[in-house]
Amino acid sequence: MLDVDGVSVDVVKDGSAKRVLEGVTLSVAPGKVHALMGPNGSGKSTLLYAVAGHPDYRIAGGRISMDGEELLGLAPEERALKGLLLGFQNPVEVPGVRLSALVLVSHNKRVGAGRALLEARDPKFLARMREVAASLGLSSDFLNRDVNVGFSGGERKRAELLQAMLLGPRYVLLDEPDSGLDVDGVRIVAQSVKDMASAGAGVLLVTHYSRILRYVVPDEVTLLVDGRIAGRGGPELAESVEREGYASLRGRS
Amino acid sequence: MSREEISGVLGYRTPEELLGPEGTYSRGMALRGRIERGMVEEISRMKREPDWMLRLRLRALDEFERIPYPRWVTGVDGLNLEEISTYVSPDAQRAGSWNDLPGDIREYYEKLGIPELEARFLSGLTAVFDSETVYSRMKEYLESLGVILLPMEEAVQRYPDLVREHFSRVFPPSDHKFAALHTALWSGGAFVYVPKGVRVPQPIEAYFIIGGSLEGQFEHTLIVADEGSEMSFIEGCSAPMLKKYSFHDGMVEIHALKGSKVKFITVQNWSRNVINFNNKRAIAEEDATVEWVEGSIGSRITYTYPSTILRGRGSRTSNVVVGVANGPYMKDTGSKVVHAAPDTRSSIVSKSISNGGGVNVYRGLVRILKGATNSVSHVECSSLIMDEGSKAHTYPHVQLEEPTASASHEATTSRLTEDQLFYLRSRGLKEGEAKSLIVLGFLQGIMQDLPIEYVSVLTKVIQVEFSEVGGLG
């Protein structure tokens, strides 16, 4: 279980800290999909960054644990190696580093290749990389491109999913993997989410719109408004958000 | 030698770490004090030089005294030429077999895996320790082809006409103060001659070690590639962790005759207390090709600008310059090309990486003389800055005097951002691993210019530089 327990977060920007989340509690169970919904600016991405350990997102209160193990105080890479993976909403470009090289090095870290991070090339893993890329509609040429450099919005989303699927995390945090995609794109993303969950991963799926939830039915839905939990429920909660919008929820907490 | 074996030899430590703290070893004699006529004469006498070489040294000494300190030289305030030993001889007879070297000297090269590298990969090797060549050997079949690889002093004795024809003709001592100082005090180094039409299949290497603090090393490499010949030369250097600084002021002269091809690769990995000046120049005659690959990784401060004079029609040069300033160090590097004949081509690619407060400077000069018709030059400078407080400066100069020629220049600076670092860390990479990955990616394009054995070595060096233990000390 990934447990976020009463967490408050200050975001540091240009030297000053601002409280963005206040007492947020939620949990993600292995093999389940937990949808986190909320209007823009409600703090959804902040929660993911804080869980992943971004140094500018300071935990001002509460605790975060993964299968009983405290995450606070661990570096982002330590959290990642313990089985956490963050799929970014707008992943940054990394010129010079090929997507295949990044995936390979990240994989080698996880299988304990020691310092031969760049040299170890398990042919089975490379074959699987091509296979998963194909399932996401990405060619093997795409794998040789520099990470996110010149990728379209949709390609970025798929490259994030590719990493999530290949690195076998216990818990996946996906930050709006569906935004900016056409219907086919959303279907592919939804299928990947279902595949990861049925393989046993707990998925925290952040989304602004409920569109993707037509294709992947969440086990739990949590609403986040103005940095606080504004509601909890099942798939029906997502439907009511779609009907009524977020406006009616403001101030309810 | 396979890539794995070389990594096995080098392991994951810097040469400085492999060599450890500066230790004691048996020394012969040392010269120190004011740099004047008596000192130069003493060096020449010890080497039993012909008169012309002594006169050349003394002319260079005059130039040294005449020429003012270059104004653009910064960061060498600590350098006091009168407190360093300008000549230090190890107590070792020159050997043609590693077993004949005293154990305490041999150990330095063994720690760096040089004998293994030689056995499996090189056509020949010259090893310089302090001011003298302690080892020199070439594969026998090359001798039968007429290839010469000799310690510079021995070449002066045995091939005086050949040496005299080229020595200090490519890089005259009058060019600047440190070139003059070098020519006055030169000691150690290699002479290479490749006869007409001979292709040397594997590289010849020279490896320089400075054993102690407050030493000056002024080794001289002269390469003459006769018509239609082909060879590549690798230069490596390192030193143990020095208590005080030492000073290196070496020179490389290359004369590439008609239709020849010379590739010169430097992997500079001095320890952190070495002040490093380099004087590297080539002359390319008709249809000759000169390629420089200059990798500056170690040292406290480095000044190096491999240069080519394209003197013959259709000659070409490709200069690749890589500077890594990791920590409170500076690399002042660049390249110079003079197009002095029609249909000449030059390409300069500079890549610098600044991290942990490091500073890189690129100085370039491309000059296309009137009459160098249809010549083409392209310069590409990319700087990668890894953090706040690290810097890169670019000073490219182009002097285009020939209307039918063209010269282009591109410069880019990229910075490693916090977002990039967090992105890679969120994938499970430590900061150092993330930086290595980015640096290797940045250097990818130039790796193809290196022999495969050295790609692996360079990959290790970069990983060591940016790992948590290495570099920043």
Protein described:
The complex is a heterodimer of chains A (253) and B (473). Chain A has 253 residues and is an alpha/beta fold. In chain A, 33% of the residues lie in helices and 30% in strands. Chain A has a domain at 2-94 and 168-249: P-loop containing nucleotide triphosphate hydrolases (Rossmann fold). In chain A, strands 6-9-10-3-11-12 form a 6-stranded mixed beta sheet, sandwiched between helices. A 4-stranded antiparallel beta sheet of chain A has the order 2-1-4-5. A two-stranded antiparallel sheet of chain A has the order 7-8. In chain A, α4 crosses α6 (153-166) and α6 (153-166) packs parallel to α7. Chain A is globular, with a radius of gyration of 18 Å. The mean pLDDT of chain A is 92. The model of chain B is unreliable at 1-11 and 468-473 (pLDDT under 50). Chain B folds into 2 domains: 15-420, no CATH class; 421-473, no CATH class. The two termini of chain B are 31 Å apart. In chain B, β3 (124-129) and β4 form a beta hairpin. Chain B is 26% helix and 37% strand. In chain B, the strands form 3 sheets. In chain B, strands 5, 6, 8, 9, 11, 13, 15, 16, 18, 20 and 22 form an 11-stranded mixed beta sheet that branches. In chain B, strands 4-3-7-10-12-14-17-19-21-23 form a 10-stranded mixed beta sheet. A two-stranded antiparallel ribbon of chain B has the order 1-2. Chain B is built from 13 helices and 23 strands. Chain A binds chain B through residues 52-56, 75-77, 80-81, 85-86, 88, 91-98, 101-102, 105-106, 109-110, 115, 117-118, 146, 163, 167, and chain B through 12, 414, 417-420, 422-430, 433, 437-438, 440-442, 444, 459, 463.
